Amino acid sequence: MTVPREVVADAPGRVNLLGEHTDYNDGFVLPMAIPQRTRVTLVLRDDRWVSVHSAQMNDEERSYQLGGERRQGAFVDYVQGVTAMFAEDGHALAGFDLSITSEVPIGGGLSSSAALMVAVARAIRAAFEIDLDDLAIAKLAHRAETGFVGAPVGLLDPIACSLADERHALFVDTRSLALEKVALPESVELVIVDSGIAHDHATGDYRVRRAECTRAAELLSVRALRDVADPAALDALPDPLRARARHVLSENARVHEGVAAMRRGDVARLGQLFLASHASMRDDFAVSTPDVDALVELAAADPAILGARLTGGGFGGAIVALARVGEARAAGERVVEQYRRKTGRPGRLLVPSE
Ligand code: GLA
User: Based on the domain organization, do 112 and 133 belong to the same domain?
Assistant: First the structure.
């Protein structure tokens, strides 16, 4: 069989319904795929160069040689990270030209980086006929981001971009990697609005939050915060570690409750859990911003919306809300309009998509 010279692959962005900042604490997450996707076209070359072109990055072009992957502090690092991990796993690649187009907003909390890495890994899998399942692709993308790009993220994003779909939430135990699909009740639809404030998890506050959780687990003598059996144990922690750990414990519990509410079609309860999750991210975990809080408040006040929260790592990004079926678009448009008037920022309705 001849290997194709050109391969097209893609992967979706993701929205997390509940379970934020729980993945690197060995906890539980509940993401879904969004309609926005990242697409890549890979064309094989006869040398060992990789040349990457991104339409989303002002048509920027960057190249490197296989085996000579070095961080450039640019989007090409995600591609380099993926090829470096394939090499680490013993797969011999040849050079290729890669062009990227993406509808997933960068820094919007919807996993633009994992969508890119999963799409690239899928293209490489097909082009070089490598036998790798979707979970293995997620793990490879995770290693690329943590080990090569240097962002200390968890498994949520690559697992969601590699394995989730648009109708089901993917309930994941990030320690055992047990996965279960849970259908979104038919009486609701998601609304996703971008606040217009971009974040970067490779630097700054995300790293601080992660370190705070590691420290809290050390002080409590547990392997990870997921292992704290009794919330009263948190009283022994100094602030702000107590508040950070309280978020992780309560958020893990909300994921379980959310799954149960979805299974029995209790969308009112699911909406309340969204609101409680946002309050916990704002007050205990301190990853929200005033504009994101305003966006959540405007959404929560809308008559068609049952609950809303910040989704993703925070410090900007997007919110996800739960609207009554058939009312999501109108509600989303109302919220964006009010947000623009209130903050002067160009909020954007991402779901329902055009
Ligand atoms: C970012 C990270 C994920 C996860 C979320 C917060 O999206 O990439 O691993 O920690 O933040 O839930």
Answer: yes
- The response to whether residue 282 sits with its C-beta less than 6 Å from ligand 1 reads no
On whether residue 1 sits in a domain, the answer given is: no
Are residues 26 and 175 part of one domain?
A: yes
At 339, list the tokens: 């947000």
Residues 162 and 252 in one domain: no
Dihedral sign computed on CA atoms, order 24, 26, 28, 30: positive
Query: Are 176 and 192 within one domain?
Result: no
Residue 184 in contact with residue 262, Cβ under 8 Å?
yes
Read off the tokens for 348: 């954007």
pLDDT, tens digit only, all 354 positions of the chain: 455 699 999 999 999 999 999 999 999 999 999 999 999 999 999 999 999 999 887 888 999 999 999 999 999 999 999 999 999 999 999 999 999 999 999 888 999 999 999 999 999 999 999 999 999 999 999 999 999 999 999 999 999 999 999 999 999 999 999 999 999 999 999 999 999 988 766 568 999 999 999 999 999 999 999 999 999 999 999 999 999 999 999 999 999 999 999 999 999 999 999 999 999 999 999 999 999 999 999 999 999 999 999 999 999 999 999 999 999 999 999 999 999 999 999 999 999 997
> Any idea what the CATH number is for the domain that residue 201 is in?
3.30.70.890
User: Domain range spanning residue 43?
Assistant: 6-181
Ligand 1 atom at minimum distance from 156 CA? 9
Choosing from 23, 104, 226, 319 the residue with most ligand 1 atoms within 8 A of its CB, the one to mutate for a pocket test is 23
207 and 144 within one domain: no
CA 204 to CA 200: how far, in whole Å?
8
Does 157 participate in catalysis according to the annotation?
Answer: yes
Residues 198 and 144 in one domain: no
Any ligand 1 atom below 6 A from CB of 18: no
Closest CA to ligand 1's atom 2? 153
Cβ atoms 116, 102 nearer than 8 A: yes
Using a 6 Å cutoff on CB, does residue 23 contact ligand 1? yes
d(CA 247, CA 249): 6
